[in-house]
Amino acid sequence: MAVEVDSDNLARVINALVSYELDALVCSLPSHVLLLTGYEPVIGNAVAVFTQRGGVHLLVPEDEAEMAAETSYANQLTFRPRSLNAITDSNQSVALPLLQLLKKLGLERSQLGLEMYGLQHPASYLSQHRYGDSLQSLIADEFRSIRLLSADQLLQRLCAVKTKPQIDGLRISCDLAGMAFKQAARSWQIGMTEPEVANVFQSAYGRVTAERNISRTQAQFFCMSGENAGKANAAFAMTRQRVIRQGDTVLIHCNSNVNGYWTGITRTYIRGERSLKHRQMVDAIANARSAGLDAIAPGVAASEVDMAARTLLTNRGFGDLYTHATGHGVGFGPANSNAFPRIHPKSPDVLEAGMTFTLQPAIYLGDLGGMRHCDVVAVTGTGVDILTDFQSPETDR
Amino acid sequence: MAVEVDSDNLARVINALVSYELDALVCSLPSHVLLLTGYEPVIGNAVAVFTQRGGVHLLVPEDEAEMAAETSYANQLTFRPRSLNAITDSNQSVALPLLQLLKKLGLERSQLGLEMYGLQHPASYLSQHRYGDSLQSLIADEFRSIRLLSADQLLQRLCAVKTKPQIDGLRISCDLAGMAFKQAARSWQIGMTEPEVANVFQSAYGRVTAERNISRTQAQFFCMSGENAGKANAAFAMTRQRVIRQGDTVLIHCNSNVNGYWTGITRTYIRGERSLKHRQMVDAIANARSAGLDAIAPGVAASEVDMAARTLLTNRGFGDLYTHATGHGVGFGPANSNAFPRIHPKSPDVLEAGMTFTLQPAIYLGDLGGMRHCDVVAVTGTGVDILTDFQSPETDR
């Protein structure tokens, strides 16, 4: 069964190659291979070659060939990374097929765009191959007339705006995570430790995806409560050993992925009597969220969305406790605060229809707790589509 | 509380630097930072600098400083990757502190070892920073008299042999996974789907680690049954949608990590009536395992261990169905078939005390099922220490 070509995506990539004066892209980071071919590689040794003429090629290890054909519209060529007859690695086994492909495509004297500089990227599998300098060295040694250029900025820009099929992929991922949130929100109990609570959500996600025959999925749920919620503004989430008590803020953060489309979702729960402070926080965050959502439309500066949410929190007296940006691009990766569009006070980015990002107003009180509400949203032709438009039963009361 | 220095590790790294004629190492892959400092970074933007004089330095993002101090004996310097006053990324924010540190250490005219070429490495977190070429460019641009060399082989060799504290770390990780296997082996049922069975094991691991206050841990359990077990010889494990029936081979594979020490463990279960073929397979694998274990000792060729297991399976008529190598290095990563020592027919590696690797005799029958028993073992002064010496109740009958 042939996979339908995402022709909007093809056109977008071709336009980008033209405007960056590149004849082709050679990419191996799984999120970029997904962007270029519709398939997210598992262990990271597949290589995508996308030419300005619109040729989409995927060098895929034979183990992944069948799976790749299920979602990718690329021309597939397989290679064999392992053998009992010799010790080989992916750098070596991809070399010949890649060089042959570049020749066949007439790219011996071209300008090629490669992934070069550092960036934050998602883990497609628990163990991944990264080519590092290998592909550059390989190509430079073979073709003296090829110019190798960094395609990093071009790729970042392409990842920021999604086509309808890509947004649909992200929506499925968000819906499944949302179902797990809604199921698990009823099941965790006071007296559990953070890992126990996280496990309730994790298990719910496992059930939700199992019932729906979703194979290519990963999710990680984190629980941060009380003083741990108060320091949940770190660059990573982490479940610790604290026991949940009545009146604690209980922050549940999820990053999940279906077929390579990543979510970032946070809800905060409180059981039992709420302090006045907690009620003020809940109200301020709900209003900051609404203010942020109201600001979203094509053509709007990303910094204005940040400012809308930040101003509301500042006016309620929580400005100094809102220590991070209001959001960042999401979808081809879960948690890269530098992904376009950056919803940050100093952001130069301008919103476009098809951009997807997180919107995450928050208040961090340190030892007194913390609260965050993180949605995934998409910019539409006229406003915003909330892909995680479910409420947690408790903060919603 | 100061962390005790792993002085054996210090001596080993210094010796390696001397023999490779490097003045220092500059590393950022989390497994290498763990090797050099005792701390596994979370999001991957920490940088370790280890000098031939024995200075161990860790540039760590401020979010991770407290956690790093819990397990690392390095001199810590913090940097700040994010700010509301400017949009910065880790490449930029680490630049100044790294260059200053290299100057302070008198390395302006040195030979530095860096990670350069491609390799398979573990995912320390679901979203990770990778510096790519950034550190090389940064250092080369600032210090024209520094020579940058690949430290990849040196690092691979260092990762292969572990000190006692490192093996103890891996042992803890194996013990916790083993407890989850033993608990969950009793709880899954015929009629469940593969994701449901995997979830039983995953939840058991969540409980086991929660009860023991283990925070820095990840685990992924995979279930492959029947024809899916028959193709479990791929370079990755994958849970699919099959319903488990009586008499199926049910292969459970786990990669888990505690404080950065990774396991790779497989057990195969059969419920209900066993076919003659399945009984022959169970017996052949048990004997291939014993033959492999018996062959392990310092000074022995890694290929001999492979041959011992392979010969037994061949004599029982399963040789052609044993399609992969008998094992590979494990501990600083979960599933890199090129990690030293490679227990492969063509391996040039020789076992040394302190090496840790997987031992994974297997039989893949395609549609008729598959069976694997994968242990983590350590080479001792005289023989072998099995870090995963638990049996699954069913294959043990």
Describe it for me?
Chain A folds into two domains: 7-159, 3-Layer(aba) Sandwich (Creatine Amidinohydrolase, Chain A, domain 1), CATH 3.40.350; 164-386, Creatinase/methionine aminopeptidase superfamily (Creatine Amidinohydrolase, Alpha-Beta Complex), CATH 3.90.230. In chain A, α3 (65-71) links the parallel β3 (56-61) and β4. Chain A has a six-stranded mixed β-sheet with strand order 4-3-2-1-5-8, with helices on both faces. In chain A, strands 9, 10, 11 and 12 form a four-stranded antiparallel β-sheet that branches. By secondary structure, chain A is an alpha+beta fold. In chain A, α7 (164-185) crosses α8 and α9 (276-295) packs antiparallel against α10 (302-315). Helices cover 34% and strands 21% of the residues of chain A. At the A-B interface, β6, β7, α5 and α8 of A face β6, β7, α5 and α8 of B.
Write the layout of secondary structure elements.
The structure is a homodimer of 397-residue chains.
Chain A: H1 7-19, E1 24-27, H2 30-37, E2 47-51, E3 56-61, H3 65-71, E4 75-79, H4 90-104, E5 111-114, E6 117-122, E7 127-132, H5 134-142, E8 147-150, H6 152-160, H7 164-185, H8 194-211, E9 217-225, E10 249-258, E11 261-262, E12 265-270, H9 276-295, H10 302-315, E13 356-359, E14 362-364, E15 370-372, E16 375-379, E17 384-386
Parallel strand pairs in A: 1-5, 3-4, 5-8
Antiparallel strand pairs in A: 1-2, 2-3, 9-10, 10-11, 10-12, 13-16, 14-15, 16-17
